[in-house]
């Protein structure tokens, strides 16, 4: 192979240069055709064994013996530097999880929207007469034939005279009396169109009470005549005679439909309602802003009172200081509540990020109290304030006297200036004459 021009790869016989596809074929070829030289066959087997051990990263020890030795004392084979290796195959199940979750959420949302659409159609042009109303309800939602239902699908109890069959107005299924719930018309209108209901709670997207509290079970809070709105029973006939509108202020629905509507109301409340920590934080921020404004006003009053001025009253400043102290107590109390919020909850305790948020709110509140409120200067006492007023009065009197002295000096300056001017006018001509005479005399003396 050394004399070949190109390098050959594979299971090639070094004698006849025949290429084989597997090592066992090459070994069999040696045993059949080149068995005359046993040393070559032995060396070939040894070469195969070493290559196999090198590829599989095995030692001279067998696997069973190597596994029996503890991992701490086991001799490891020398690591082979294979160079940079590519990352193995990675599988992400996120898309599959999203598909399954979206299918489930879509199924629940589709069913809930279907119930809301049916509820809206039931409320639209709802007749007041019980017979017409029953026809209207069966037109919107087809009812299951009660002859095909032998047992209640929810509680699996049989129907008889004391346990009558009732239809759900939203899905048309047959239920017993105990497995149905009454949904009032007002709550149904709030679910379909909250703005159309003339009620304070209907204006907001969610109501304070969940649907589970607003749903009234049959027989609770209602008269015996209102147990069944069916026109074929004695109760319905008596309700038509006595109170034609008493049994018409609700829809009978099954627990499955009620749970779907309840889940939708809770989702709306979770989406629109603010968590309790937000309410506490908004109150905390309001106290902090109010305290900052009062501190600015208090600093002005403190500076004025320390100067001995009478612009502000000492009692008003003390009252403002007490108000700032009260706000500081409220800020400290609310921040403490936020820091321990949800710690006693066993089912849903706060997680790491939520705990960190609560801790940071507490820290920021403490920094505000330290830098803004605790640095407020104390007011002077009444005796000290009286002394400050006297000192201010002395300073004012001294300044008035100094200003009067300056005015007198300014008044005397024009008089002195006039004297100087008159003196100059009188003295200058005489000095000029003396100078002239002196020059003449000097000139005469210099002549021969």
Short description:
The protein is mainly alpha-helical. 59% of the residues lie in helices and 4% in strands.
Layout of helices and strands:
Elements: E1 11-12, E2 19-20, H1 23-33, H2 38-56, H3 63-68, H4 94-123, H5 130-140, E3 166-167, E4 174-175, E5 180-184, H6 185-192, H7 200-203, H8 211-214, E6 216-217, H9 234-242, E7 250-254, H10 255-272, H11 276-306, H12 314-339, H13 352-373, H14 382-446
Antiparallel strand pairs: 1-2, 3-4, 5-6, 5-7
Describe this structure in words.
With 448 residues, this protein is mainly alpha-helical. Helix content is 59%, strand content 4%. It is built from 14 helices and seven strands. It has helices at 23-33, 38-56, 63-68, 94-123, 130-140, 185-192, 200-203, 211-214, 234-242, 255-272, 276-306, 314-339, 352-373, 382-446, and strands at 11-12, 19-20, 166-167, 174-175, 180-184, 216-217, 250-254. The strands form three sheets. It has a three-stranded antiparallel beta sheet. Strands 1-2 form a two-stranded antiparallel ribbon. Strands 3-4 form a two-stranded antiparallel ribbon.
Beta fraction of the residues?
under 5%
CA-based shape: flat
- Category from helices, strands and their pairing: mainly alpha
Q: Give Rg in angstroms.
A: 52 Å
The secondary-structure element order is EEHHHHHEEEHHHEHEHHHHH
- Tally of alpha and pi helices: 14
Care to count the β-strands? 7
Question: Sheet with the most strands?
Answer: 3 strands, antiparallel
Determine the fraction of residues in helical runs and give it as a percent range. Answer: 55-70%
Distance between the termini: 147 Å
Flag low-confidence runs. 58-62, 196-247
Instruction: Give the integer mean of the pLDDT values.
Output: 75
The strands making up the biggest β-sheet line up spatially as 6-5-7
């Amino acid at each position: 192979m050394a004399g070949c021009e190109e390098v050959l790869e594979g299971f090639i016989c070094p004698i006849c240069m025949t290429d084989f596809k597997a090592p066992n074929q090459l070994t069999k070829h040696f045993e059949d055709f080149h068995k005359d030289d046993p040393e070559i066959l032995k060396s070939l087997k040894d070469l195969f064994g070493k290559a196999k051990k090198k590829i599989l990263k095995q030692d001279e020890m067998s696997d069973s013996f190597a596994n029996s030795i503890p991992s701490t004392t086991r001799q490891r084979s020398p690591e082979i530097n294979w160079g940079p290796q590519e990352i193995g195959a990675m599988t992400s199940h996120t898309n599959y999880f999203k598909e399954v979750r979206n299918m489930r959420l879509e199924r629940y949302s589709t069913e809930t929207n279907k119930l809301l659409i049916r509820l809206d159609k039931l409320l639209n042009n709802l007749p007041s007469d019980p017979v017409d109303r029953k026809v209207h309800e069966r037109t919107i939602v087809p009812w299951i034939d009660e002859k095909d239902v032998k047992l209640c699908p929810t509680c699996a109890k049989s129907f008889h005279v004391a346990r009558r069959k009732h239809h759900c107005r939203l899905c048309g299924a047959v239920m017993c009396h105990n497995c149905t719930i009454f949904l009032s018309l007002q709550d149904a209108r709030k679910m379909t169109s909250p703005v159309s209901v003339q009620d304070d709670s209907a204006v907001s997207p969610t109501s304070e009470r969940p649907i589970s509290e607003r749903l009234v079970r049959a027989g609770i809070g209602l008269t015996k005549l209102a147990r069944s709105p069916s026109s074929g029973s004695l109760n319905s006939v008596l309700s038509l005679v006595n109170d034609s509108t008493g049994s018409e202020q609700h829809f009978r629905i099954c627990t499955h439909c009620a749970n779907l509507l309840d889940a939708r109301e809770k989702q709306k409340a979770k989406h629109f309602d603010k968590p309790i920590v937000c309410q506490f934080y908004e109150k905390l921020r309001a106290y902090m802003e109010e305290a900052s404004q009062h501190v600015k006003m208090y600093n002005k009053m403190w500076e004025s009172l320390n100067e001995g001025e009478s612009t502000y009253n000492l009692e008003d400043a003390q009252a403002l200081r007490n108000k700032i102290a009260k706000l500081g107590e409220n800020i400290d109390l609310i921040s403490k509540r936020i820091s321990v919020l949800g710690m006693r909850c066993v089912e849903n305790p706060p997680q790491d990020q939520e705990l960190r948020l609560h801790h940071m709110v507490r820290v920021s509140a403490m920094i505000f109290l330290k830098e803004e409120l605790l640095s407020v200067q104390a007011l002077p006492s009444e005796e000290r304030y009286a002394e400050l007023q006297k000192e201010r009065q002395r300073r004012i009197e001294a300044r008035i006297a100094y200003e009067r002295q300056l005015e007198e000096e300014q008044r005397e300056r024009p008089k002195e200036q006039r004297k100087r001017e008159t003196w100059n006018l009188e003295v200058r001509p005489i000095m000029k004459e003396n100078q002239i005479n002196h020059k003449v005399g000097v000139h005469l003396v210099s002549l021969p």
